[in-house]
Design a protein that fits this description.
This protein has helices at residues 3-25, 34-47, 53-62, 64-74, 85-99, 116-127, 143-151, 159-168, 226-239, 280-284; strands at 105-110, 134-140, 153-155, 179-181, 185-188, 196-200, 212-217, 240-248, 263-267, 272-275. By secondary structure, the chain is α/β, with parallel strands linked by helices. It has a seven-stranded mixed sheet with strand order 6-2-1-7-8-10-9. Strands 3-5-4 form a three-stranded antiparallel sheet. It binds S-adenosylmethionine (SAM).
C-alpha cells in the first residue's frame, strides 16, 4: 500500500472510530481537528501493539479500561499558573477596569483542566479587590482533571516556574502567600476556592452559561475543527452579557468565525474580545 492509500484508509478508520465512540459511549470528538486525533490514536495503537485503528476501535467498544485510556489520550490537559504572563498583564490593564464597573461579576473558565488558571484568576481578582463580588464557574468535560482542580493540590516541582510567571504577570505579593507547601506538593489557600464552582460541562454537547461578564477559554479551540470552533464561539456569544469579554489562547482567534462581527477587539495579541452592546444585525436593520 502506498502512503496515499494508507492515508485514505486512516481517514475512513478514524471516521468510523469517532462515530462508534459517540454512538456507544456518547463522547463526541467528530469535529476535533483530524490531525490531532490521528496523532493520538496512532500513538495509542503503537503502545497497545495493535495493527490498525480498527483493532483499537474494538478495544474502545469492548474494553472499559482501554476506553478510559483513549479518552485521556484524546484530551490534552497541559496547563500552568499564570500561563502566558503577558495575558494576565493585559487582563489587569484592559479588562479589570471594566469589571470594576459591575456590582457583581460572573466569570466562566471553560476547559479549565486541573485548575491552575482558575487559581491564577482568583489571585488576580483578590489583588484587585474584586474577589468578594465575583462568582467563578470552572468547567471541563474530564472528571479526572476536575478532581485535581477541586483539591487545589499541585506538585511542588512547578512552583519555581509558577512564581516567575506570577511576577511577570504583575503579581503584587509574594506568591508563597497563596499556598502551603510540604515536601512534595503545595495546596492552594482555600479562600481562593470560596467563590468557585467546579462543574462538568462539555462544550460540544452542553448548553449556555447565561449572563457572564468574562469567559476564559484558552488552548481548547485549537483542538477543534473550524465548524466546531464556530459552534463554540456562538455558545460563548450567547453566554456573554452585552459588553462581556471573551479571552482565547494565543494561537486561537474569532477572526474566521461567522460571529466575529459581534465582537470588538480589546487586544489582538492576547486574543481578548468584547461582545458588542447590540448585534450587528439589529444595527443594520436600523
Ligand atoms: C490544553 S488544556 C487547556 C487548559 C487551560 N485552559 C490553559 O489554557 O492552560 C485543554 C482542556 O480542554 C478540555 N476540553 C477539551 N474538549 C472539551 C470539551 N468538549 N468540553 C469541555 N472541555 C474540553 C480538556 O479536557 C483540557 O482540560
Amino acid at each position: 500500500m502506498n502512503a496515499h492509500e494508507q492515508n485514505e484508509l486512516h481517514t475512513i478508520e478514524i471516521s468510523l472510530f469517532l462515530e462508534g465512540l459517540f454512538r456507544q459511549h456518547g463522547y463526541d470528538f467528530r469535529n476535533y481537528s483530524q490531525a490531532h486525533i490521528k496523532r493520538r490514536l496512532l500513538h495509542r495503537m503503537k503502545l497497545m501493539d495493535l495493527k490498525s485503528i480498527s483493532q483499537l476501535q474494538h478495544e474502545m467498544l469492548y474494553n472499559p479500561a482501554a476506553l478510559q485510556q483513549i479518552l485521556y489520550d484524546l484530551s490534552i490537559n497541559v496547563t500552568e499558573m499564570f500561563r502566558d504572563p503577558s495575558f494576565y498583564q493585559t487582563l489587569r490593564k484592559e479588562v479589570v477596569p471594566l469589571l470594576k464597573t459591575y456590582p457583581f461579576i460572573k466569570i466562566w473558565h471553560a476547559g479549565c483542566s486541573t485548575g491552575e488558571e482558575v487559581y491564577s484568576m482568583a489571585i488576580l481578582l483578590k489583588e484587585e479587590g474584586l474577589y468578594d463580588r465575583s462568582q467563578i464557574y470552572a468547567t471541563d468535560f474530564n472528571q479526572k482533571v476536575l478532581k485535581t482542580a477541586k483539591s487545589g493540590i499541585y506538585s511542588i516541582e512547578h512552583i519555581r516556574d509558577y512564581t516567575q510567571n506570577y511576577q511577570k504577570a504583575g503579581g503584587r505579593e509574594s506568591f508563597s502567600a497563596y499556598y502551603d507547601a510540604d515536601y512534595n506538593s503545595v495546596i492552594m489557600d482555600s479562600s481562593l476556592r470560596k467563590n468557585v464552582v467546579f462543574a462538568d460541562h462539555n462544550l460540544v454537547t452542553d448548553g449556555v452559561f447565561a449572563e457572564m461578564h468574562l469567559i476564559i477559554c484558552r488552548n481548547v479551540l485549537i483542538y477543534f475543527d473550524r465548524q466546531l470552533q464556530d459552534r463554540v464561539i456562538h455558545l460563548f456569544l450567547s453566554s456573554l452579557a452585552p459588553g462581556g469579554v471573551l479571552c482565547l489562547g494565543n494561537k486561537e482567534n474569532i477572526q474566521f468565525s461567522s460571529w466575529a462581527n459581534h465582537f470588538s477587539v480589546i487586544s489582538p495579541n492576547e486574543k481578548i474580545f468584547k461582545k458588542l452592546y447590540s448585534s450587528p444585525d439589529s444595527m443594520q436593520n436600523g
